[in-house]
Design brief:
The complex is a heterodimer. By secondary structure, chain A is an all-alpha fold. Chain A is built from 13 helices and no strands. Chain A has one domain. The longest helix of chain A is centred in the middle third of the chain and has 45 residues. By secondary structure, chain B is α/β, with parallel strands linked by helices. Chain B has two domains: 223 residues, P-loop containing nucleotide triphosphate hydrolases (Rossmann fold, 3-Layer(aba) Sandwich), CATH 3.40.50; 71 residues, no CATH class. In chain B, a hairpin with a 2-residue loop joins strand 9 and strand 10. The chains are: A mainly alpha, B alpha/beta. At the A-B interface, helix 1, helix 2 and helix 6 of A face strand 6, helix 2, helix 3, helix 4 and helix 5 of B.
Chain lengths: 311, 302
């Protein structure tokens, strides 16, 4: 291509482009960053390793020793929901920790922010991408768990029907009802939603830590500490309140501690589900709102720190 | 009165080193004015403050003192970036995206979509000679190809100002020449180019004006020809001159009380020699790239 040809091509290009006027907020920009983040994370080996490991654990819980079908279903729910919770939490931390440092290291952040893209849209696009990936993982693992549960329930129902073939119909119906109620109960679904919201909270907190961290290893180590402290936070708080009373200073101090170490034990509804205790709508709504509140606060804090960050 | 493409007023940037009492002055009281349509070269050794200045102009780093503007718009405001395309030094981009996907991504960030975006992407891939590699992942691109896709993303939203940080760093002479030609094309189109480089020969070929930074201070600035001209000396390049003619010119010079400083054979440049030597040794190069380079070489030799 000669210089003249290049120039005329550029003229045609410029005539054909109709870049829109800048808008302070555009869903299309956030959407572009979100989809790119999901693509980036699904290309990571760690995503598949965690997902496969979770699925294998859920699948293998069928073969765990059991004495009765109630015990079998209890173990299945306990192991599966525990696996979903652990692997979504791990994925939230590991996947989010690398997003900002990697973009800075590769200088891709410069090319993105040198376009008319506000920094809060970049942060919002990144976190939405992670939340979308966590939703996909939760749906896949949750779906696998429900499938395994349904398969085992059907197997137990068939065995029971075969064994009780000569029994009166009322007795058979009672036995089937007991099996069904101990296998699937509707509380499993809000339980999975809360597990997802816990992972969202951890992702947002990891994003916040990564805005001032120097490397993704640092972020992961800090998040590991926060994860363990946050699980013990409620116990420590109760102890503190017993020792020091509940004066204003104590309450402010505990609020600050609760901001950086959210009470993750509050998101643990697995024990109730396994025990067959009904999760009330109030408890579900309260826990869900807590998760959404923390996720929003951490995203806002991440945006605030990222705004002042020198790149 | 039209706004300058870039205006820098009393710019100072000091980086504080955490946990130390010392601080680093990267840029000191810098004033610049780049007019629309100019190719301006910001030159200087490593660590002289070139990249920091560019980052402040692009709003990526905040100044300690002073301010910068792009076409009259404060560069801390996001809307100032509407008019700017930027190619960073040694860009990596997302390795898992193909060339086409990369341009689509950056186009969407600039508000382009649909058929307009698709056409723009195809045309830019053509312009930078990457049509054949459009579906290859960037992880498989060479450095020169990455630089070209970087230039394409910088042009995706039809900017009025293109900022290039070391645009030919690590690129071979042929790729470097391609980028030079593209910069000259941008200039012809009236697009302002601000580039930083420490490759002086290349800056000399393409820049209208240059500024030389040393330790964050602008030590020289002006039109290139004015800066490098030696006022009392003149060069004559003569082809097919006989020995008699040369002797006559020399004696005329002597009679006129002027002084002949040097008489030497004209030489080619090392770059031209390299391009000639590698002309027929491009087995790995695409037909598209070969014909483009051939045309460029013919033009250059002519």
């Amino acid at each position: 291509m000669t210089n003249g040809e290049n120039a005329s091509t550029l003229e045609q290009l410029n005539a054909s482009t109709s870049a829109k006027r800048y808008r302070p907020f555009a869903f299309s920009r956030i959407y572009a960053i979100t989809i790119n983040t999901v693509t980036e994370l699904t290309r990571l080996k760690v995503f598949y390793v965690l997902l496969i490991f979770g699925l294998v654990l859920i699948g293998s819980s069928i073969f765990m020793a059991q004495f009765s079908f109630q015990q079998e279903f209890q173990i299945l729910k306990d192991v599966s929901l525990g696996a979903i919770s652990l692997f979504t939490s791990l994925l939230a931390i590991v996947a989010t920790a690398r997003l900002l440092p990697q973009d800075i290291e590769d200088r891709t952040l410069y090319t993105i922010l040198a376009k008319p893209v506000p920094r809060f849209e970049y942060v919002l696009g990144k976190i939405t991408g992670v939340l979308l990936l966590l939703a996909i993982s939760t749906v896949v693992m949750g779906g696998a768990f429900l499938l395994v549960l349904y398969t085992r329930e059907q197997a137990v129902l068939h065995t029971t029907l075969r064994q009780m073939s000569g029994a009166p119909p009322d007795q058979i119906a009672d036995a089937l009802r007991v099996i069904r109620s101990s296998a699937f109960n509707i509380d499993i679904l809000p339980g999975i939603v809360i597990i997802y919201l816990k992972a969202c909270l951890l992702a947002a907190l990891t994003l916040f830590v990564s805005t001032f961290a120097t490397s993704n290893i640092f972020t992961i180590v800090v998040m590991a500490f926060i994860y363990f402290i946050a699980h013990l936070q409620a116990t420590a708080r109760e102890y503190w309140l017993q020792e020091h009373g509940s004066g204003l200073i104590t309450r402010v101090f505990l609020a600050v501690v609760a901001l950086f170490f959210p009470d993750l034990q509050a998101f643990n509804l697995v024990d109730d589900i396994v025990a067959g205790t009904a999760i009330s709508l109030t408890l579900f709504a309260k826990t869900a709102l807590l998760g959404i509140f923390y996720t929003t606060i951490y995203t806002l804090l991440a945006t605030f720190v990222f705004y002042g960050k020198e790149l | 009165m039209t706004n300058p493409a870039v205006a820098v007023h009393g710019l100072t940037k000091i980086f504080h080193v955490p946990f130390h009492r010392q601080s680093i002055v990267a840029v000191k009281e810098l004033n610049l004015r780049i007019e629309p349509g100019e190719v301006y070269g910001l030159l200087g050794p490593n660590g002289s403050g070139k990249s920091t200045t560019l980052k402040i102009i692009l709003g990526l780093v905040s100044p300690t003192r002073g301010r910068t503007e792009i076409f009259g718009c404060d560069s801390r405001l996001v809307q100032s970036r509407e008019a700017v395309g930027f190619l960073p030094e040694n860009p990596y981009f997302y390795k898992y995206l193909s060339g086409k996907e990369t341009l689509l991504f950056f186009g969407r960030l600039c508000g382009l979509r649909g058929a307009v975006l698709k056409n723009r992407v195809n045309e830019l891939l053509d312009l930078v000679g990457l049509s054949k590699a459009r579906n290859r992942r960037l992880g498989t691109y060479s450095k020169g190809m990455l630089q070209r896709i970087g230039l394409a993303q910088a042009l995706i939203h039809d900017p009025r100002l293109v900022v290039l940080d070391e645009p030919t760093a690590g690129v071979d002479p042929a790729g470097s020449r391609d980028i030079r030609d593209l910069i000259l094309d941008l200039k012809r189109r009236g697009i302002t180019v601000l580039l930083s480089s420490h490759l002086l020969a290349q800056a000399q070929e393409i820049c209208d004006r240059v500024g030389i930074l040393a330790d964050g201070v602008l030590v020289r600035e002006g039109h290139l020809q004015e800066l490098i001209a030696i006022e009392n000396q003149t060069e004559l390049v003569i082809a097919d001159a006989s020995n008699e003619l040369i002797r006559e010119i020399e004696s005329f010079v002597k009679r006129s009380n002027a002084k002949l400083i040097e008489r030497r054979k004209s030489t080619t440049t090392l770059e031209r020699l390299f391009l000639e030597a590698t002309k027929n040794d491009e087995a790995g190069m695409s037909k598209e790239g070969r014909s483009r380079n051939d045309q460029r070489r013919k033009r250059f030799n002519a």
